[in-house]
Design a protein that fits this description.
The chain is mainly beta and 431 residues long. The chain has one helix and 32 strands.
């Protein structure tokens, strides 16, 4: 019937030109038994493309889709396949693209994060593991953010990394490759900025709303009598610093004074009570719906050894409870990350090393969650591209505060040596 339609079109002079573009799988590639096909078609037919389909062998049409786009998974037995992706237009014409693939040994990809069809922040954590029936095991695991766009790849069978994506819907794929020429995939569709409350505050280090507080050793309560000029503890925040800077506009945070081991805490109220971002949330329609937070910042310090510690905190106050996700990079105190136990009022060592680079920009990303049963979940710490998964749960404490805030803190050492830290590209995501 198609040959007759084609002949009729040729005789009438109305044959439309058409093409089929196949993004995946690549022609001549070795794939897993679960094969993702992604293709699109175009035609000069005024009525457009009617449908697309996949042949795994001559006359074996195994899949069809209406319209000019195709995205599906096929499960095939090991072997060589001379597949064909074909389009049919509404003028009686068609066009095809052959794709030869070799289906290798079986494998499996398990993706722990992000969840399929979930809303995520612009900084997305991927955690996955792979297995294979190949006797020589898994060679590598990678992430495609779009067909043909390999955004990340790592050796071995485990993957744990952060990707920064623009807002939108992504049909990502996590793929494993084994040492026998086979592979397997797991599709993960995500929506970046995918809910009505999902958003990000950008370049907070450049914005207003920061308040500094002196914390004197050994109690470390806020010193209400202290001023930025000291003498017990001194502090200053200077914005619009051009060097050192990544964006051309960093903020320099200075600490000094006479009382050893004293600290300075800078706090910014983002949402809710005393919001600096114009989001007071008087009707309580925003904060109760927020469960996920990402603190993303670059910091520069000339000599990290003079700092006792650097602290980065995320705080949520909602439903009569205080959720404080405190993260402290102990430097002079032993180069290790600690996390805050608010009910116990103490730090928990994590065993995760913290070694900021001197005279260089260090990139830190913290991910936390308020769980559906109202616990604090410390999810991960990523410093200079190395992600450490925590999955540590903690309990909240009572409060009358309401809102979302962030902190940045510098701790003085045994000599209260004056030192500066520069902050840049400080972004905070919430959803």
């Amino acid at each position: 019937m198609r040959k007759f339609a084609l002949l009729l079109a040729l005789c009438s002079g109305t044959l439309a030109s058409a093409s089929v573009s196949v993004s995946a799988p690549a022609n001549g590639s070795t794939v897993s038994p679960t094969v993702q096909y992604v293709a699109s078609a175009s035609s000069s037919c005024p009525k457009g493309v009617s449908a697309m389909g996949i042949y795994t062998a001559p006359n074996q049409l195994v899949y069809t889709a209406q319209g000019a786009k195709l995205n599906t998974l096929l499960t095939l037995n090991p072997g060589v396949y001379h597949t064909v992706v074909e389009e049919w237009d509404n003028c009686g014409g068609s066009s095809a693209t052959p794709v030869t693939i070799t289906v290798g040994s079986g494998g499996n990809v398990s993706v722990a994060a992000p969840k399929n069809n979930s809303p995520v922040s612009p900084t997305v954590q991927y955690v996955a593991s792979a297995s294979s029936s190949c006797a020589n095991g898994v060679s590598a695991v990678g992430i495609y953010t779009a067909p043909g766009q390999l955004a990340y790849k790592t050796s071995g069978a485990q993957l744990n990394t952060l990707l920064t994506l623009n807002p939108g819907v992504y049909e990502t794929v996590v793929q494993e490759w084994d040492n026998c020429g086979g592979s397997a995939v797991a599709p993960v569709t995500i929506t970046v900025g995918g809910s009505s409350n999902s958003s990000v505050f950008t370049n907070l280090h450049q914005q207003a709303g920061w308040t500094g507080y002196g914390l004197l050793a050994p109690q470390y309560n806020i010193c209400t009598a202290c001023t930025p000029s000291g003498p017990q503890v001194t502090w200053d925040m200077t914005q619009k610093i051009s060097s050192p800077s990544l964006s051309g506009n960093s903020a320099r945070m200075d600490v000094g004074g006479e009382t050893v081991y004293s600290d300075v805490l800078w706090n910014n109220h983002l949402i809710g009570d005393f919001s600096s971002q114009g989001m007071p949330d008087y009707n309580h329609s925003i904060v109760p719906n927020l469960h996920n937070f990402t603190y993303d910042v670059y910091f520069y310090v000339e000599d990290p050894s003079v700092s006792q510690a650097e602290e980065f905190d995320i705080n949520q106050f909602v439903g009569g409870y205080s959720y404080i996700w405190g993260h402290e990079c102990r430097i002079a105190g032993g180069n290790e990350w600690d996390i805050w136990d608010n009910p116990g009022q103490k730090w928990h060592p994590t065993g995760i090393p913290c070694n900021p680079l001197p005279n260089a920009w260090n990139h830190l990303v913290l991910q936390v969650q308020r769980t559906s049963d109202n616990h604090l979940l410390f999810q991960s710490i990523t410093l200079n591209g190395v992600t450490s998964t925590l999955n540590y749960y903690e309990n909240p404490t009572p409060t009358t505060w309401y809102g979302v805030t962030i902190n940045y803190q510098q701790d003085g050492n045994y000599q209260q040596t004056p030192y500066s830290v520069w902050l840049d590209k400080l972004n905070f995501s919430y959803w």
